[in-house]
């Protein structure tokens, strides 16, 4: 894998010479800012909570503003770098900053309301060690903006968006990947997600959408979950269950506003999925809720997938990785979480004494 990484860096420098540059021996991968050609002329207004609402009728879309500082982006990159430093050649470390919907669907009239997702991604990539793999899903998603890759009524991407991100990751990680032909789709109709509650804008409520997700076929898998009990503020783990076999996919009726919890049932749990895939590769995903939609696209790729939420973990992550023979670590945080100090702080805390070395 380290030979693969060397080849990858060389290819980045040659194939992307127009946008890459060398700084202190580092080949910097830069994403090009997406120019909105999907809904540039939409009207837009600010709703409660600073939520941006644009479009009309059944095409109404709501999403959050985005802002970041270089300092916060650098802290995230530093945490990723620390993991690579600690694990060294024993581990492949991947960094996947995930854009939020404002990256692609911000109308021209609202351009000044939100910062640049691309600028934040580029800042993080520019600070990564040369032996960390940058995963550019910003560009991968930009190639599919005409498709429903983000929910219109929820703050998450859609399962289809996560599919394209997993595909890009598999290319860089050099693992098998299967097209949606190998999946069975299910649909929750009349879905209205978190953005109605956040914005209190009736136009969002009156623009339900289909929540379509995909279950892999031809591969068996078993999920074991450790469930966390949280304090009233949902900020701290106060107790946890014994590891329990549980369903990876949860089923929701039409109209259910929590349909995104289809994947693993939510965030407040530690998940291990063992698959029938014959591979020596075992993946640890460090994520926020955006990352919940990724693992099931990788059941064909890894023999085990472990999922840790950036807010809830009670063990030492170095010991956990070695105890479970992890070979690959994927940081998969949406760009707002990545540029929030609490996220990088938690990742450093999970290293325990190893992080002080």
User: How many alpha or pi helices?
Assistant: 11
Number of strands: 16
State the low-pLDDT regions, or none.
Answer: 1-27
Taken from the alpha-carbon principal axes, the silhouette is globular
The secondary-structure class comes to: alpha/beta
Specify the oligomeric state: single chain
Characterize the largest beta sheet: strand count, sense, and whether it forms a barrel: 9 strands, mixed
Summarize the amount of helix as a percent range. 25-40%
> What is the alpha-carbon Rg in Å?
20 Å
- CA-CA gap between termini: 25 Å
Mean pLDDT: 92
How large a portion of the residues is in β-strands, by DSSP E? 15-25%
Reading the helices and strands in chain order gives: HEEEEEHEHHEHHEHHEEEEEEEHEHH
Description of the structure:
- The chain is α/β, with parallel strands linked by helices and 357 residues long.
- It is 27% helix and 24% strand.
- It contains 11 helices and 16 strands.
- The longest helix has 18 residues.
- The N terminus is likely disordered.
Key structural traits:
9-stranded mixed sheet, 11 helices, alpha/beta, 357 residues
What layout of secondary structure does this protein have?
Blueprint: H1 2-15, E1 21-23, E2 26-28, E3 44-46, E4 52-54, E5 61-63, H2 70-87, E6 92-98, H3 102-105, H4 117-127, E7 133-134, H5 137-142, H6 159-173, E8 183-191, H7 194-199, H8 202-205, E9 209-216, E10 221-230, E11 237-240, E12 244-246, E13 269-275, E14 282-287, E15 304-309, H9 317-323, E16 328-334, H10 335-338, H11 341-349
Parallel strand pairs: 6-7, 6-16, 14-15, 14-16
Antiparallel strand pairs: 1-2, 3-4, 4-5, 8-9, 10-11, 10-12, 10-13, 13-15
Helix pairs in contact: 2-4, 2-11
């Amino acid at each position: 894998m380290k030979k693969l990484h060397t080849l990858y860096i060389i290819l980045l420098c040659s194939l992307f010479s127009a946008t890459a540059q060398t700084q202190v021996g580092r080949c910097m991968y830069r994403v090009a800012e997406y120019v909105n050609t999907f809904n540039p002329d939409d009207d837009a207004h600010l709703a409660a909570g600073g939520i941006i609402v644009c479009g009309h009728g059944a095409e109404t879309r709501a999403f959050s503003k985005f802002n970041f500082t270089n300092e916060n982006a650098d802290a995230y990159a530093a945490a990723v770098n620390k993991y690579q430093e600690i694990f060294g050649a024993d581990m492949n470390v991947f960094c996947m900053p995930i854009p939020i919907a404002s990256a692609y669907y911000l109308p021209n009239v609202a351009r000044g309301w939100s910062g640049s997702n691309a600028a934040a991604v580029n800042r993080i990539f520019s600070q990564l060690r040369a032996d960390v793999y940058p995963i550019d899903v910003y560009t991968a998603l930009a190639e599919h903006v005409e498709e429903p890759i983000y929910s219109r009524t929820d703050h998450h991407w859609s399962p289809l968006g996560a599919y394209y991100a997993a595909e890009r990751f598999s290319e860089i990680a050099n693992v098998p990947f299967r097209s949606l032909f190998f999946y069975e789709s299910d649909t929750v109709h009349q879905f209205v997600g978190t953005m109605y509650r956040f914005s209190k804008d009736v136009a969002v409520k009156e623009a339900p959408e289909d929540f379509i997700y995909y279950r892999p076929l031809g591969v068996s898998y078993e999920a074991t979950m450790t469930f966390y009990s949280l304090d009233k503020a949902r900020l701290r783990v106060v107790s946890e269950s014994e590891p329990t076999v549980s369903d990876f996919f949860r089923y929701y009726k039409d109209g259910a506003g929590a349909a995104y919890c289809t994947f693993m049932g939510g965030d407040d749990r530690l998940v291990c999925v063992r698959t029938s895939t014959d591979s020596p590769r075992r993946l640890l995903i460090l994520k926020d809720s955006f990352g919940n939609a990724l693992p099931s696209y990788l059941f064909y790729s890894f023999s085990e997938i472990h999922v840790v939420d950036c807010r809830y973990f009670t063990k030492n992550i170095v010991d956990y990785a070695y105890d479970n023979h992890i070979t690959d670590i994927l940081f998969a945080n949406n760009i707002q979480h990545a540029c929030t100090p609490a996220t990088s702080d938690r990742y450093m805390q999970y290293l325990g004494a190893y992080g002080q070395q």
